[in-house]
Amino acid sequence: MVMIDKLTSLLGAGDVLTEQEDLVSYSFDGTATFRQLPRAVVFPRTTQEVAGCVKVCRESGTPVITRGAGTGLSGGTVPTEGAVVLCLVHMAEILEVDAANLTLRAEPGAITADIDAEAAKHGLFYPPDPGSMKISTIGGNVAENSGGLRGLKYGVTRDYVMEVTVVLPDGEVAAFGNRCVKDVAGYSMRDLFIGSEGTLGIITEVLLKLLPRPEARRTILATFASMEAAAETVSAIIAARIIPCTLEFLDQMTIRCVEDYTKMGLPTDCAALLLMETDGHPAAVADEAERMVEIARKHGAREVKTAADEAESLQLASARRSAFSALARVSPTTILEDVTVPRSCLAEMVAYIAETARKLELTVGTFGHMGDGNLHPTFLTDERNLEEMKKVHQALDLIVKKTLSLGGTITGEHGVGLAKKPWLRDQLGDVSLGLMKKFKETIDPENLLNPHKIFD
Fold it and tell me: Using an 8 Å Cβ cutoff, are 264 and 319 in contact?
């Protein structure tokens, strides 16, 4: 109780939770299959309070699990036994928009969509847009190096982080990077913390790069009789040197679920749907949209629809953005997975996922970012059915191994956490994994920050 008393003295009784009924909500994240009650949950409001909490926990050897909105999909914020969850949702201020330098400074609890909305007031744009952007926090995005629908053209979170303020495992505070466009002084320590999943430090402030907001956007929806035709369309678009801001797909199972959910008139007998968006200068947008429509039709699109205005663009885009919600309605448990293969292997990988589901008698819908090869096979199951869950784990193992055999990666944007930890060695090999462990052991020798995530 000494540790709890010290945390209460530091933060106040209202910002320290210890009762079981209060802790349940912090025992899991967006991943369905991992749960563990923490010892306590604390809500610091400043970098200094974060540092103080870390020092208190370090005195007693108590693990610290950093958490934002809890939308993670790899088990990355699931507590270990006896851990303190350090929740940063009250550190949610957007501190500054510097329009002259195209930057925005924010605390880690700021909502991703709010950051883009604030940038928009200045005619600026924060491109990364994970599917959870309306509720996910920027600190979690940085910790997981989140991607999103616009990743093909604009990249991922790492590409927009200029500076991070980090509380280290000993409670000291460090800052890496600055607002300069060029900076090659020393090691790029900033990049070490981006995507480190809370295992090396706790991010308490970020400086983000912004871009001028695109003047125009055009949205196109195309349907195909086969996944191969959709994949060939994507390859042809890229070969034509068109880089859309969005190039997404849904398979037939997902299309049917989305149509049942949205009633937007999607053809449920087609095998694949492509959502294509281009943005930029109006003349360039008009040209690229026309060329993408032509390419889609040339490769056998059954139907191609171009949005007439912004309202229709949002409606067409909702077919993709509602995919997870639509699938989640089907069964009690929804397990959203994440693998990435080279674009040339997309059709083969989607077919393998469907065949694996058929053989194991599982219900799986697949959607994702076809432009960058990132697939989200989504298992619709019931975690109370132990036999079926065994099949889900078997299917996931087969899918991950197939991904690696095609030169892919076990995670394109969700992170390793607990969910993908069993396969990290298979992807990296002993030497690369060993080097990662050395960084962890050097920076966090007592293994207090998010232990047992990424690797043991």
Answer: yes
Quick one: pLDDT band at residue 302, thresholds 50, 70, 90? very high
Candidates 3.40.640.10, 3.30.230.10, 3.40.50.300, 3.30.70.3450; CATH matching 216-324: 3.30.70.3450
Q: What is the residue extent of each domain of the chain?
A: 2-87, 94-212, 216-324, 331-405
Q: Which two tokens stand for residue 216?
A: 């125009």
Task: Please name the amino acid found at residue 240.
Answer: A
- Report the DSSP pairing between strands 339-340 and 374-381: antiparallel
Tokens representing residue 46 in the block: 């400043």
Torsion angle of alpha carbons 3, 8, 9, 13, nearest 10°?
-160
Say how many Å lie between the first and final Cα of the chain, rounded. 28
pTM over 0.90: yes
Cα 16-19-20 angle, rounded to 5 deg: 130
Q: Which CATH architecture has domain 94-212?
A: 2-Layer Sandwich (3.30)
CA distance 24 to 161: 33
Could you tell me the fold of the domain covering 331-405?
A: Alpha-Beta Plaits (3.30.70)
What would be the CATH architecture of the domain defined by 2-87?
Answer: 2-Layer Sandwich (3.30)
**Residue 445 · residue 439 · CB < 8 Å:** no
Residue 320's pLDDT is what?
87
Angle in degrees, CA 223, 367, 34, rounded to 5 = 165
- Exposed, middle or buried by CB within 10 Å (0-12, 13-18, 19+), for 45? middle
For 400, residues 6+ apart whose C-beta sits below 8 A from its C-beta are: 339, 410, 420, 423, 426
* DSSP3 helix / strand / coil % (the chain, rounded to 5): 40, 20, 40
Q: What CA–CA distance (Å, rounded) separates 388 from 422?
A: 20
Q: Which pLDDT score is estimated for 151?
A: 93
Q: Assess contact for 130 and 112: CB atoms under 8 A.
A: yes
Equal fold, 94-212 vs 216-324: no
What is the per-residue pLDDT across 77-110, written as a single tens digit (0 to 9) for each? 999 999 999 999 999 999 999 999 999 999 999 9
CB atoms within 10 A of CB 268: 13
Sign of CA dihedral 263, 266, 270, 272: negative
